[in-house]
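Tokens help. Consider this.
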Amino acid sequence: MKGSDYYRNGFTMEHTEDIFEGYGVEISLAHEDDFLKVKETLTRIGVSSRVEKKLYQSCHILHKRGRYVILHFKELLALDGLETDTSESDIGRRNTIVKLLTEWGLLTPLTDKYKDNQLSIAQLKIIPYKEKKEWELIPKYHIGK
């Protein structure tokens, strides 16, 4: 394997390939420490249980080779080579979350594709930071595991 190659899903790929293969919304951050702010904020946005105070995180921020991208957890599963059933609703949820993070000044999308398909804000649960300890925050994907 050459130094500029990497290994994924049983195949050796060159660095020139798009590592995200059309998944997610590529973004830029104003400051290096904004990564942790976005990462923490995403833990508090998702789909809640109707019975218990549980929130299932919808999206994650991924930093790879100097690029940042917001991905729905099902897109991360697909990038790992696993079979997934990503729906238009999942993509709409991701796009709506990108829109919110943009409005809050946490990131700048590098593409307009997030504007195409969005959900009503009512279809998301956003836990205020001060209420974080009252909820069980559950990621549906664990980056790096």
The chain has a mean pLDDT of 87. The chain has one domain: 20-139.
